[in-house]
């Protein structure tokens, strides 16, 4: 009855060669035995049995998994805490690819574990499993290995931390989640034990810092298992899963069952100073000091673990961790050193664990009562590829037209299977180059146009054989892409798991601009009749086709596309000609934004001929936004070809003591590309031009304008920074009264009237639901905002689905009620609600939700004549069956025997049995169960019973 098993897990490593059709794996159990209470049983455990079976078949009672005996390798007799570490290894060839569970179970666990049951725990068997996906595309795949032993001592009232030190040599991504300890079940599967969270065995106390209650959790990303803090001493067992992910797919998982020993400790735990994560270019020598302290002055042992120390898990050189004065009292310092190389490049970071353990110093009274405590921390080290250098390009003659030959320096890291990816953008484009952010950032404007082997230094860009556009300034960058360690080239994610290099410096061809570019659409004055906007552009640098002409067009509205020509401007492209500016006058800039485009004409065969046109650019439109009653909310937009994001815009407010004078009150850092906001609370937050504060009060008017700041981010376009003003907006302070939800109703369906005209159901579309609603003056004693400017109508086909916006109904200030016809429906069934929107864009809560069902129409005749005369030959519904989702029809003879059945919504019974035998003339009885389309996904069935006369 000796009890001995404390903890353990199963790992696996593929040993068959890459590309081999054999699926041979080394399977290892690492088990931890209790040498205090079960030494005899532990010593006698010379072998164990693995159960290996298909995950998809293990619940089949007739399925027989493989059971294999594995011998014990030389054990480690004492890893601390009266525990021995034993490993058992076999080699097994899986018959086919698939999803397999490898499990181990053995009697008995060690006794007196407080949080699993039923007690006594020495009668519970110990069980762990690993799920492994066998797939030839995974190459030399292996499960993660767990480098930190699962036996630790925690102290009552002190924060405890454990990390398994999981390392995946293949560079796969790891995630962690808690799991319930198990015993063995059918065919190698597991059955959950009775389990309580260790923190709930007794009422939880406070954390180490005094917060309440204590906590017990595991970090899904880092794997840190933290108990802050235990209350009751004793043994506790917990389990967790280490998940292995590749390219977004779960490809394996390990269950570790571990034991925490909680003791009363007349001691405080040591602490390691927090360490930053590290990002380095391959080839960098890392030297990271690590310091641990103990406020009691205890002796300290500082150690480190991780795959970076093991030459069987990573290519050399491996890392080193040295501690000059191990066992120092109070403070100890170590140095982590690692000479990284090209062989260490990968997408996922390397995790390195640092652990400090204390021991009694010479001044500690009663050393026999001392309990060693630990602290640990994990550092992520990311190794990325070096930046490619020397990228240049030249124009070349190519049958396809314009083409460019790119060349670059030989890449530093010649990793077999790696590639150079070539990216192109259609302008000189700045992108941020940041360590820890290799590759090309999303949204940068670059697209990948090709790949070459890592040893290549040239690429011809002829746009896939179609030729490049003449006159376009193309920008290029290159990035090295690396294979996942051990991956097969046939793996779809071959070049994903290995990571990327930093993007190279830009090479921009800097071709002369062949087209003008609009740079400014700025509002000079705000008026309903005398508004003025200045439009500016830059000349093309290519002086071809002289003389030339600009033609400027305007449309009303930022998205306006009804363009009208407003000017013809001749140019000879001389440097000082005033031909790149037009002042557009007589506009209603108070009510409208305006959109502009420029067409460029050159002389071809003596005729002005359109060469191209610019992208459109709108004026800046300033509007009021929602805010508190003592504030003014502002929002502005500009639909322009340049970038107004990631800049600082300027907000101006009129100085009421100096009418017409605007004072800058704020500079707003913006990131979004289109819509920007600011809330004015009256404080002037820009002091450079003097501080003018005001008190924002209701019903008082304040005037504003904004100045956007943008850029094309193109070194050829000058000026590089573009400034444009909005119109002046004069508003009162925002009213915070939100609109109230309307009260919605649906016109009732007159089913009797509809059934009187059954031909109406023969169409499958064209139905209409008529909605009406009223807007309340007040709700629950609260005044509702009377200035509603629109209603939004939402619809869901089924109750419980998320409604979608189907219409925005604008409404005059009064009357505050309206209606909407939802037309073109194939069914009346559905659910609706309506919201109200005020002038600040604030939306009310939803109205009452109204759901409607259909008027079902299903009528069966009482006679049919299946005699082949093409008249009433089949038994089917009269007119058109309406809104039938599904049905089941059964016909019986007069003795109650079923003679026919169908699920055809039109029934179409031809007077024969399902086997094709003609039935005799006579009376038959039927039962039909019908599911009609309704507002519920699972509609209530309707059962109809009747009889029909079959005549021949």
Automatic annotation (TrEMBL):
Under Pfam families, the record lists:
CHU_C
The UniProt entry, under Gene3D superfamilies, shows: 2.60.40.4070, Immunoglobulins
Q: Where do transmembrane segments lie in this chain?
A: none
- For this entry, the protein name equals Gliding motility-associated C-terminal domain-containing protein
